[in-house]
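INTERNAL AUDIT FORM
Audit reference: QA-55
Scope: verify that the stored structure record matches its stored sequence.
Auditor: D.O.
Record contents follow.
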Amino acid sequence: MNDGNGIGIKANKIYKRKLVVRIVKVTLLLLLIIISTIYLFLYVAYKGGRFTVSLDKNMSNRKNIFLTETGEQNSKTRKLSAETIEYMDNISVKWLPDNLDTEANGSHNGDNYIAYSFYVVNNGKEAVHYWYELDIDDTIRNVDEAIRIMVYLNGKPTIYAKAAKNGGAEEGTKKFYSKDVALLEQRKNFKPNTKDRFTIVVWIEGDDPECLNDLLGGEIKMHMDITEEHVSGTGKGGA
């Protein structure tokens, strides 16, 4: 026969058990919310477009300069977005097609590389200088250690890479401008009624000493800005 004290002890145990279950449920719910939030952030950051090109509003509005994938005025815009690929294995620059700059307009990705071609068109009456800057917004698992970015400007390619461990440039490349800026270059004397063709190619260089298994699962998000520096006087700029 149970006395009142025994009933009290049993009820206390049941209460503690329910309290533990409730705490576990709340903890799991909080973890689920945190994980969902992180997933949503990654989805927005990486699935929302890994590479975009934007034009300075002043160049567009005041100088009648625009971006286009086709080179024609009927497709002019101030912002372009490249298609992405879900998976990129390491390759060698030697494996890239020779006609990357001329094979297509817009996105023309291949096996294990991103390729995007577009035009900057001067439909105005003045020559301008402009800067083109490619920023690295975010990386996962330090994948930028082995990333290569090749920029064709009117058929001339330049390859950019993060500095080697000794601080020098990787073979055949130009060092990133800074930690978060892959390149910063000036295009001088962009004359009226002319167009510049860009092709941006991104891949993971398998011959890079930093191309290790630690980079597996890495991702990178980048964007390119094109901004103005006006040529004063007659509109006939420098070299």
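Auditor finding: record pair retrieved intact. The radius of gyration is 27 Å.
Action required: none
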